[in-house]
Hints:
By secondary structure, the chain is mainly α. The chain has helices at residues 21-38, 49-56, 60-71, 91-115, 118-132, 148-162, 168-187, 198-210, 214-235, 237-240; strands at residues 46-47, 76-79, 83-86. Helix 8 (198-210) runs antiparallel to helix 9. The protein is elongated and about 55 Å long. The model is unreliable at 1-21, 139-143 and 237-242 (pLDDT under 50).
Amino acid sequence: MDAVDTNVLNTSALAEPGRGPESRTTQACAALRQDILSGALGAGVKLKIDQLRERYDLGASPIREALSLLTSDGLVERLDQRGFRVAPVSGLEFRDILKTRCWMEERALRDSIAAGDSAWQDRVVLAYYRLSRTPRGGPEAGDLSGSSEWEALHKAFHMALIGGCGSDILIRFCDQLYDRNIRYRQLSRPAALPKRDIEAEHKAIMEAAIDGDADAAVAALIAHYTRTGGYLEGSMLDTAGT
């Protein structure tokens, strides 16, 4: 694969003079994560330190540290003695991510509903309200991707649903799987989903969760994920690369 084009999506504005090494590493990690998830850095692209320094206007050390951190999230792959590259994609990995995500989020959602205090319910309702009030947008009508605001609120809603499960480790794993799954959706931008009411799907999940109906909430959540997953596998993965 070709190396990174430093003229594309240069994010030098992210740099803030005077901030310490830890802040710069966090900065580099956030910028790299966003570019990988959005598809600006495509699957398999070699990540050269010098080009990333120019792209993000950051030093080599925070860039290297950020790349190492992102390997643990499955977004970056270390090449023996040859640096790093964006993790490749495949149909096999996508199916594994989707299956594991469904397993883990079912457990987390059931535990959240069982623990279900009013504070958790308020967070879920508020996250749904904010998402429902935000147009999905995206480059084209029907596009699988959304605006950056919609994408952030979409993740916030799904994380709110499982946020009452009582396990920080489970939430962290679900968070990582969400990002890895979303990368596949972003890679499918040229495709459009068959007509479906995404807001109604979110509402059904939210209402069942708030009503304490774990079986209905889980069924709605899994159907929500597998509808998109089945379409992606059929329309995008053949050309996504391996």
